[in-house]
Amino acid sequence: MKALITEEFGKPFVMKDIDQPIPKDHQVLIKIKAAGLNPLDLKIKNGQAAHAQVNLPAVPGIDMSGIVVETGKNVRDFKAGDEVFGMVGGIGGHQGTLAEYITADADHISLKPKNISFQEAAAIPLIFITAWEALTDQINIQPGQTVLIHGGNGGVGHIAIQIAVAKGAKVYTTVQPDHSDQIRKYGAEPINYTTLSVDQYVQHYTNGLGFDAVVDTVGGSVLDDSFRAVKQYTGHVVSILGWGTHSLAPLSFRNAKYSGVFTLYPLLSGERKKHHGDILKEAAHLLETGQVKVLLHPQSYSLDQADDAYSLLESGKATGKVVICC
Question: Less Cβ around it within 10 Å: N or C end of the chain?
Answer without folding.
Answer: N
